[in-house]
Amino acid sequence: MRLGILGNEGSWYVHDLTRAADSRGHQAVRIDFPKFVATVGCDRPHVVADDIDLPRFDAIIVRTMPPGTLEQVVFRMDALAQLSTDAYILNSPKAIECAVDKYLTTCNLANVGLPVPATITCEDAEAAMMAFEWLGGDVVVKPIFGSEGRGICRVSDPDLAFRTFRTLARLGAVLYLQRYIDHPGFDVRVVVLDGAILGGMIRRNGTDFRTNVARQGSIEPHVPTSLECEWALQAARSVGATFAGVDILYDREGTGWVIEVNAVPGWRAFGRATGIDVAAKVIQFLESQSTRSI
Questions:
Q1: Do residues 27 and 57 share a domain?
Q2: I need a labelling partner for 137 at 20 to 30 A (CA). Which of 32, 94, 128, 246 fits?
Q3: Are residues 216 and 269 both part of a single domain?
Q4: 287 lies in a domain?
Q5: Helix axis angle, 158-170 relative to 125-134, nearest 10°?
């Protein structure tokens, strides 16, 4: 197979996927979103990058979605959709588009009956203050687009809440508020691939309500319970993701909540915790897709 990896230069994940592809006799090439050149009605491939004919790839793995303007991001998703007519995309453009949007993801999770924290989303600071009160005066404010806990803050003081909401509104941000879930300092990450559970890990942080490893959280292996497996598979399906990391948080009473679905899941920490070679699993899955398409 010839694989394209949409990833940043120097990315550990690009290197790991290239290693796994090479070990199984496949060629992997890193490509950049900003280098996309799309054509319509021309005697050329409909999307090229750095003189690479992207449609000649058997599969493309999306490992990043670089920051950009609305126009740039929409164009990238449209170009991916065009590429999907010639190559298998992991994950699909629709899945990535849904999962990177926290509001849309939360809606989809709730619509299939999964437990999610009470959430209110708006654009106006005054409306956000009313939401703050409705949610009990203790909320987590998250950017609609973001990962690894970046830009997330907990607000429980009304004056600080007003200043926070007003500042974000003036910056043109969407105000996404979730009721704070008082938890014992850990969450569960379950990784899903092709409708099956790869494994799970626990992330702990005793000094930060964010348990992300990027926030100095510790990790340990975890065998997901049957309910966690059910939730993770249902969550991945709800956003259309074939490959996903699903985060489950428990409150102090033991009630579980599905917090997030990541359609570009990292596995560096997961691999250390579980010993699972995720890159190899991904390449083997793509081999099965190539076989099915013949």
A1: yes
A2: 246
A3: yes
A4: no
A5: 140
- Per-residue pLDDT tens digits for 56-80: 789 999 998 887 888 998 899 998 9
Model confidence pLDDT, tens digit, residues 121-144: 999 999 999 999 999 999 999 998
In the block, tokens 């949007």 appear at 101
CA distance between the termini of the chain: 12
For residue 198, is it within any domain?
yes
CATH label of the domain that carries residue 168: 3.30.1490.20
Please check whether residue 265 is in contact with residue 244, taking contact to mean a CB–CB distance below 8 angstroms: yes
Closest CA to 200 of 233, 223, 228: 223
Distance CA 115, CA 99 (A): 17
Determine contact, residues 179/139, Cβ cutoff 8 Å.
yes
User: Residue 170: inside a domain, yes or no?
Assistant: yes
Q: What is the pTM of this model?
A: 0.91
Give the number of other Cβ atoms within 10 Å of residue 230's Cβ.
13
Strand partners, 177: 120, 141
Residues 6+ apart with CB under 8 A from 230: none
Is residue 177 within 8 Å of residue 140, measured between CB atoms?
yes
Please check whether residues 258 and 186 belong to one and the same domain.
yes
Give me the residues paired with residue 30 across strands: 5
Residues 189 and 268 in one domain: yes
DSSP 4: E
Cα-flanking dihedrals φ and ψ of residue 146, to 5°? 165, 160
